[in-house]
Amino acid sequence: MMKFRFRRQGTDPHRDRLRHDLFAFSKTVEHGFPNQPSSLAFDPKLRIMAIGTKSGAVKVYGAPGVEFTGLHKETATVTQLHFLPGQGWLLSLLDDNTLHLWEIYQKEGCSHLEETRSFGLPGRPGFDSANCSPSITRVTVILLKSTCDVACLGTEGGGVYFLTLPGLALLEEKTLFQDEILQSVPDDYRCGKALGPVESIQEHPRDPSKLLIGYSRGLVIIWDQTTRTVDHLFLGNQQLESLAWEHSGKTIVSSHSDGGYMVWAVNSSCQKTQQPVMSTIPYGPFPCKAINKILWRTCESGNPFIIFNGGMPRASYGDRHCVSVLQGQTLATLDFTSRVIDFFTVQGTEVAEGGFENPRALVVLVEEELVVIDLQTPGWPTIPAPYLAPLHSSAITCSYHISNVPLKLWERIISAGEQQSPRLSSASWPINGGKNLAQEPTQRGLLLTGHEDGTVRFWDASAVSLKPLYKLGTANIFQTDCEHNDSLNQASEEEWPPFRKVGCFDPYSDDPRLGIQKIALCKYTAKMVVAGTAGQVLVMELSDEKSEHAVSVATVDLLQDREGFTWKGHDRLAPKNGPVAFAPGFQPSVLVQCVPPAAVTAVTLHSEWNLVAFGTSHGFGLFDYYRRNPVLARCTLHPNDSLAMEGPLSRVKSLKKSLRQSFRRIRKSRVSGKKRVNANSPSSKVQEANAQLAEQAGPPEVEMTPVQRRIEPRSPDDSLSGVVRCLYFADTFLRDAAHHGPTMWAGTNSGSVFAYALEVPSQEKFSERAVEAVLGKEIQLMHRAPVVAIAVLDGRGNPLPEPYEVSRDLAKAPDMQGSHSMLISSEEQFKVFTLPKVSAKTKFKLTAHEGCRVRKVALVSFASATSEDYAENCLACLTNLGDIHIFTVPGLRPQVHYGCIRKEDISGIASCVFTKHGQGFYLISPSEFERFSLSTRNVTEPLCSLEVSRLQDTSCLSNNFMVTPKLPQANGTHVPHSPEANHSPADSDRSPEEHQAAFSPGPVDSPNSSMENPLDTTGDITVEEVKDFLASSEEAERNLRNASEDEARPAGILIK
């Protein structure tokens, strides 16, 4: 039968305006540490820092909130970055040997980062390009002169080229080749050998016309640009790695491949120096690795700072990543857990002649984190970073976001974090350039990340900078091998080299069973539940005082003595016996251990009822943490579900079962294929006729329903069908329409929903009476698609408030007069049922319409950008294709959809978390969260300005900038502008009557508000199997009679 959909012509302009005021998609900022950093630069005048990455990203940071992001068009490694001090220009070198100039420019009161031009060095003139290796002109070092008008490029072939800035034009007449240098080199030193690549170019600190140039073979020269002569020769014989001037210009220091460094005196009376003033191998006498970079900084207090990286004894510590800080007799060997990329010191911008540099801080970029050392405080402690925190110090396993955190809880968490890691340095953050123009956040947002090592980290996610607040550890509750780390970190006084562990990146977990899988936190009572990989569920409470107490342990058997099942996975974690010491912060009171100890897949907390529910791949349980006794345990395993017994850490697999399932699928597809291909069947001829009719142009008001994909029901004995996907508490109508009460809902991988009526005593009688749970209803979705989320909506269609929100006047009381609805989100569709009868009300078949599956859903409140008082509750959904769809509730009308994450980025999709006010986070790399906004009003993005003073007018370079709402993201993504997301803009000149009409709730679910994907209004009804365990037999018969009468009536809107 043909399916037609009739609707009025045109669209609803009021709804379009309203949609424009509510929804807008943008990727706003990247939180965390850049993935695979490859280069570093610092502007001492503007006090900003730049980091380049292997993916071609450039990220500029100043004061907290001052951030710029750019992305090269070429996906190539950024090997070097250099600022023109104070100019707002940044020069980048890629590994394809191209140079790119970036400008920080002002537009509409805010600063932006944009690439203006690029340059590639041509081959050496006079050489046949076919026979000449391209590496001859490969750039090895770059120096931007203090005059900010010339860049000096040292190359692999030993030549030095000069470019104009900011025009990037080659000054060919100034090019310096090795041939010109070799004329001044003594014959006995030359020996017919080339000087090698240019390893370092440094400008004379007192005379900008003179350059210090070092070649790989060991020769160092001072080149006078004005006379084009060699001013001084330093005839080194050891392979050169780097050079540095002493501030007065009377001394230079060179570092070498043998792990040593040499100090040379610059003597104006003699042109040649053959021997250094001092030569030392700090970590000798055994063979050492090269010192890759060295700095010399003068200090008013006496001895200068000599800072270098590398130089470790090759045999014993060749695998260590170290930066050494030496001042007189004081040596600290800073030991990092990842490779050192680069480092610089921060000192005063202007140092008078004869004055001292007095470095304030040492900034070290390593592969996995940024560490800043305070050089003015004795002991050289670290300065905590307000941003660029390594989120992945241990691998992230789950995320959880809390909006509108009460001030009291916020202050208690911050206090616990400060006591946990007291500041040893009083120094302020040294990279503080620019001005943050963003408004103070209106509400406090908390992002919690669970980690592989059993820790939960609390982050301030209110603004652009993601700031660490507090770290909660759970490993100390169990008997693990964690304790040996502390003894390893304590270096003995006699140890040489004097290693000092710095940084917090530690990717190695002592026991994979410690990994955190699920988190739940009540922001009003400071109660928290943390669940892990080995079935451990910890109920915790925030305490401002340290404590020493024993953690009570309760075991819940989820198999319920079911026979024929043997757990083949990992063992449970053994808790410590006796009292355990806990620092101020979240302290565990009860450990609930699931048996078998499978990973916890769902958890929820209701602090008003003192209940916590948890689920695994075997079933779910309910626990009363006030009386510390289990209330309920239910096994969800199918009799054939043997794979659930093997555990995630087990390598055991049933080959026979896998083969059997594969053959079943092949056989099923063949049979269904034969049925579909029968061309002589009447249904096939009808389909052909329908297709021909569809191709003909019909009247404009008649529209074809989009073709729906056929969805095959899932087999009930699919592996892992018993996995509990979601748990939910609600005060709603389950027994009958007259009485509401506490309920608990559980959804599984096989499309089953279990609803329990709970008998919860009043708060005065908690200690006297136990909580009781009675199975109320059991629902089986038709296609057995996994249940992703469950929510109950009140009589007005609003989500139920959180525990204590109403009693503390923080939310409106739910409507208990009208009938409640239940929204079930499966992987294939969304469906709204009435309560308590559980009859289908409306639905949207996402998989049938869009060909995608639901991965994450959340009920989100969208506030209007133009009206303070108007907001809508909507359902936000992320699919397996990386798209985000937004629907109204309870009408399930599609509003907008956006492309957010690449469909290949499976880990990014799995890590996504929505906030309650229209924002979200997902991992774009192991160390970075991408923040996005779905709301027009609620956007968190960098708004900052940077005042630059240019030496010359460069407006010609920046007059062709395109206005872009957001620069390309560092991970190579960009803000998509899908046609579905483009709606007619709201008319700012609308009349008051139009404005009122735009915000009237009437057209929200009107027929005109539907988008390209309409609700299905025809077809055969398919009824889920609903078992009601609370209704009387008379009521059940009456319901059955009513249902049969409904079927006999002509169908208006039928639910499929």
UniProtKB/TrEMBL annotation:
Residues 738-971 form the Lethal giant larvae (Lgl)-like C-terminal domain. Its main location: cytoplasm. Residues 668-677 have a biased composition (Basic residues). Residues 986-996, 1035-1049 have a biased composition (Basic and acidic residues). Residues 678-690, 1006-1020 have a biased composition (Polar residues). It is found in: Cytoplasm; Endomembrane system. One of its GO terms (cellular component) is plasma membrane. PROSITE patterns: WD_REPEATS_1, WD_REPEATS_2. Signal peptide: none annotated. The keyword Transmembrane helix does not apply. One of its GO terms (biological process) is cortical actin cytoskeleton organization. One of its GO terms (molecular function) is GTPase activator activity. Keywords: Cell cycle, Cytoplasm, Exocytosis, Membrane, Phosphoprotein, Repeat, WD repeat. Residues 280-381 form the Lethal giant larvae homologue domain. Residues 668-698, 967-1056 are annotated as: Disordered. WD repeats lie at residues 446-460. PANTHER family: LETHAL 2 GIANT LARVAE PROTEIN, LETHAL(2) GIANT LARVAE PROTEIN HOMOLOG 1. Belongs to the WD repeat L(2)GL family. This is LLGL scribble cell polarity complex component 2. It comes from Dromaius novaehollandiae (Emu). The lineage of its organism: Eukaryota, Metazoa, Chordata, Craniata, Vertebrata.
